[in-house]
Amino acid sequence: MNCDRNLSWNDVREAFRQIWGYADFRPPQGEIVQTLLQGKDALIVLPTGGGKSICFQLPAILQTGITLVVSPLVALMENQVQELHQRQLSAALLHGEQDKQQRRKTLAAIERNQLRLLYLSPETLLSPPVWERLSQPELPINGLILDEAHCLVQWGDTFRPAYRRLGAVRPALLQSKPAGTKMAIAAFTATADSAAQQTIKKVLQLQQPQLFLNNPYRPNLDLQIKIAWTPKHRWQQLIQVIKSQRSQAGLVYVRTRKDAEKLAARLGKEGFSNRAYHAGLSARERREIESAWMSDRLQFVVCTCAFGMGVNKPNVRWVVHFQTPALLSEYIQEVGRAGRDGKPAIALSLVSECTGFLDPGDKQRREFFATQQRSQYQRARQLAKKLPPQGNIAAVTRKYKNGAIALSLLHSTGQLQWRDPFHYIISGHNFPATLENENATKQMAQFLFTRHCRWQFLLAAFGFSDAAKNMRCGHCDNCRKKR
Q1: Which of 144, 169, 239, 408 has the smallest count of CB within 10 Å of its CB?
Q2: Best CA proximity match to 31, nearest among 218, 193, 186, 198
Q3: pTM for the complete prediction?
């Protein structure tokens, strides 16, 4: 096996040892690196902490062109690029919060083919200044990496509609490159059931992708669900967990920015070393909080889902969901931030009892988010009927506030084709009555109140039915009760 620079596999392993300092790859890292160096498409599902980033960073560094890494969060991009810079590797990022000088510098580096890795969001990738430079015939693009690919499934229909246009990127870029140019696409995630895998393959137009599917089971991770009978009881249980950990590093997850600020302030008054973290903070504030937590100057962070992707802190001993996420894929991502060093860790979720009579908070949050989602869906359905049968997304979004979402929903129901990332053709307007996400929300509720092994439930939910058949982890709350 050779790559652009005619390196042997021994050379690749030696580069890996020199750059990252590990003796050898962990399965299936080596196989994934080989696949990407050979220019093949791939879909990779590895548990959190499984070393996914190295699998695409190493092939990118060993090749002479640029590799595009599409990432959902600025914090995630900044963390990975910072680590690459510390290793003196050629990488940069582009996002809307950058100052103009840094942005111009990165765009110039793209034009001069000085980068091996370029991190950017789907929206930035499809912005005119970036697209213009990437389309230059003389710029070699080795591949497109979709990091945290589950975001395409979770957010692509309504929240981040640009994800739905990514399948048109490769054919459009190849049209501007010399004949015979190849460009691989690889999607990486920790969570994707069989339906999500099919969506990712279809949207990205993966060509005979190599599949690497490892189940998410972590034997050192103790899953617990506890009923919070009242708001006071929920608070007491959180305090009890924090005190029991004796200053060990942890995370507390909530659903909204407001909840993060409110809870962090209340815990601060109790003398606990913590900060609130969410997408509304400036880049400087986010870096300060991450740095303080990574260096153990903060015991824990009260955060929304904006925190954690790509942040690798091995000694996290506990994760508490003060408010549970809406989707199982979010849950498995967030609990997976604990115990990456292989030592025991707990993942506790606090939930109201089913009726919500004594503590209606969970029920009200679920209904609020579901109502918001349904309203947005209905508005997009009505708007879709007004859109021209073919056109340009820029013109549509200028005229209609939710135009991009309407186009995304048409694409997700198979009634729209992207001729390129900017031009579409509509073939119908038949929408299903409800969003698919509503079923996923019900699945999360089933997990919270199941009486069976929690790891067995998760393995079955994510498509690892064989592994789930006789699964009894022995250490989740349900298994302990039966024991």
Answers
A1: 239
A2: 186
A3: 0.86
